[in-house]
């Protein structure tokens, strides 16, 4: 059990800088709602750089993107809320309690909280993962899978799966949407009878689609992720009652209380934990501890993070309550080059990523590439 839901620094917060960035993705990830990237495959994010008076620094990543599709936040709402409210409230403080005065904006909140926690971990001379675990044992390698977007055809999908399996990924997640579901998953299951396979609908269905989704029960899927509306916990409980396949909630889980409600009404059986979606590492820890004590399978989701967000996700996924493969793939699947000096490579023999062991976040940001990514952000905004 983690005890640390709240951390204090020895030295007050001196400076906080925001860096909006645009980064070319190695490839687009098409989902039922479109893509987090623009048509030109540029992914946006905001990096937060926080410095304590003692000179110790920490970095955090805001996973909101150009448009309010996956969530209502965007890079521009995050910049606004960080600059005008969150940052002025915490400058000179030794903790983030002043953020309690503000509602919402979980992804902006997470970026600031992650930067602060990374700085506190560095100040204490420990890795972020050890600050999260309270020193309790955790994994050195985190089992991971890969998320595969909607492709032009079933044949193209099978080719991508084959490539990912060759690379060493042992859990395959396919994005689905109405009419890109049963036939696709049947074809994949018959080509690969034994792989760990799951589907993510990103809220593309309604309860009226239950007969379609029931056809997936024969395919031995690990889970179906977020089939119904992003706030439809009640509807998910009606669907789960009709499905054998476990439902995993992503978009619908914003707090630990949402997990309690999910369990109470049977809206799902598995949780996808994204620290940005739940408003930070402390809420993420509460969800982790709840799932661990209730025996709820848990994994860490991904939002196409740069090395900064990826390092924080790995620290979180190293906790013992994270029991299923996480959506944290190798750097090369997203960015080439990334913003961090460190790249994460897949340990192909066991489909894992190694958790950073250095103090703080355990990765260093390359200033030259950061500056170029900031210019690219403003150019993209200007180009419209
Ligand atoms: O629903 O899990 C999702 C990426 C962007 C937005 C939403 C989702 C995703 C993914 C994970 O599927 C991608 C990744 O970081 O590997
Ligand atoms: Mg999802």
Please characterize this protein's 3D structure.
The chain is of the alpha/beta class and 384 residues long. The protein has 2 domains: 13-125 and 366-383, Enolase-like, domain 1 (2-Layer Sandwich), CATH 3.30.390.10; 141-354, Enolase-like C-terminal domain (TIM Barrel, Alpha-Beta Barrel), CATH 3.20.20. Helix content is 34%, strand content 16%. It has 11 helices and 12 strands. The strands form 3 sheets. A 7-stranded parallel β-sheet has the order 5-6-7-8-9-10-11. A 3-stranded antiparallel β-sheet has the order 1-2-3. It has a two-stranded antiparallel sheet with strand order 4-12. Strand 8, helix 7 and strand 9 form a beta-alpha-beta unit. The model has no long low-confidence stretch (mean pLDDT 97). 2-succinylbenzoate (OSB) is lined by residues 29, 36, 70, 147, 200, 202, 250, 301-304, 327, 329.
Question: How does the SSE layout of this entry go?
Answer:
Elements (H helix, E strand, L loop, with lengths): L12 E12 L17 E11 L4 E6 L12 H16 L15 H19 L3 H6 L7 E3 L2 E3 L5 H14 L3 E5 L6 H10 L4 E5 L9 H5 L9 E2 L7 H8 L6 E3 L6 H10 L4 E4 L7 H14 L3 E3 L6 H11 L34 E3 L12 H17 L1
Parallel strand pairs: 5-6, 6-7, 7-8, 8-9, 9-10, 10-11
Antiparallel strand pairs: 1-2, 2-3, 4-12
Helix pairs in contact: 1-2, 8-9
Please name the defining characteristics of this protein:
2 domains; single chain; Enolase-like, domain 1; globular; alpha/beta; 384 residues; binds 2-succinylbenzoate
| End-to-end gap | 47 Å
How much is the radius of gyration in Å?
Answer: 20 Å
Second-tier CATH architecture of the largest domain: Alpha-Beta Barrel
Here the CATH topology of the largest domain equals: TIM Barrel
Q: Order of SSEs, N→C? A: EEEHHHEEHEHEHEHEHEHEHEH
What's the story with the biggest beta sheet? 7 strands, parallel
Strand content: 15-25%
Number of strand segments = 12
Mean pLDDT: 97
Characterize the overall form: globular
According to CATH, what is the class of the largest domain? Alpha Beta
């Amino acid at each position: 059990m983690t005890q640390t839901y709240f951390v204090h620094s020895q030295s007050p917060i001196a400076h906080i800088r925001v860096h909006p960035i645009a980064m070319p993705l190695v490839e687009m990830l098409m989902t039922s709602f479109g893509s987090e990237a623009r048509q030109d495959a540029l992914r946006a994010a905001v990096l937060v750089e926080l410095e304590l008076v003692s000179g110790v620094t920490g970095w955090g990543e805001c996973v909101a993107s150009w448009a309010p599709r996956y969530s209502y936040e965007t890079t521009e709402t995050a910049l606004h809320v960080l600059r005008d409210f969150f940052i002025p409230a915490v400058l000179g403080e030794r903790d983030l309690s002043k953020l309690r005065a503000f509602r919402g904006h979980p992804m902006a909140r997470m970026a600031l909280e992650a930067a602060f926690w990374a700085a506190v971990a560095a100040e204490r001379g420990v890795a972020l993962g050890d600050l999260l675990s309270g020193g309790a044992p955790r994994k050195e390698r985190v089992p991971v899978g890969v998320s595969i977007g909607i492709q032009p055809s079933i044949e193209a999908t099978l080719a991508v799966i084959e490539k990912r399996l060759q690379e060493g990924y042992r859990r395959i997640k396919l994005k689905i949407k109405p009419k890109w579901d049963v036939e696709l998953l049947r074809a994949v299951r018959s080509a690969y009878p034994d792989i760990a396979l799951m589907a993510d609908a990103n809220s593309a269905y309604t309860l009226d689609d239950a007969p379609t989704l029931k056809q997936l029960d024969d395919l031995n899927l690990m889970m179906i992720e977020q089939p119904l509306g992003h706030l439809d916990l009640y509807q998910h409980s009606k669907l789960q009652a009709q499905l054998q396949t476990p439902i995993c909630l992503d978009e619908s889980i914003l707090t630990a209380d949402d997990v309690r409600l999910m369990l109470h009404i049977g809206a799902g059986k598995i949780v996808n934990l994204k620290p940005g979606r739940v408003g930070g590492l402390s809420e993420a820890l509460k969800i982790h501890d709840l799932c661990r004590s209730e025996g709820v399978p848990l994994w860490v989701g991904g939002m196409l993070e740069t090395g900064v967000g990826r390092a924080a996700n790995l620290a979180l996924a190293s906790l013992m309550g994270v029991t299923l493969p996480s959506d944290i793939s190798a750097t090369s699947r997203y960015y080439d080059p990334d913003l961090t000096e460190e790249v994460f490579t897949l340990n192909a023999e066991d489909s894992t990523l190694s958790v950073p062991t250095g103090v703080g976040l355990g990765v260093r940001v390359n200033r030259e590439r950061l500056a170029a990514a900031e210019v690219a952000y403003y150019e993209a905004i200007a180009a419209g």
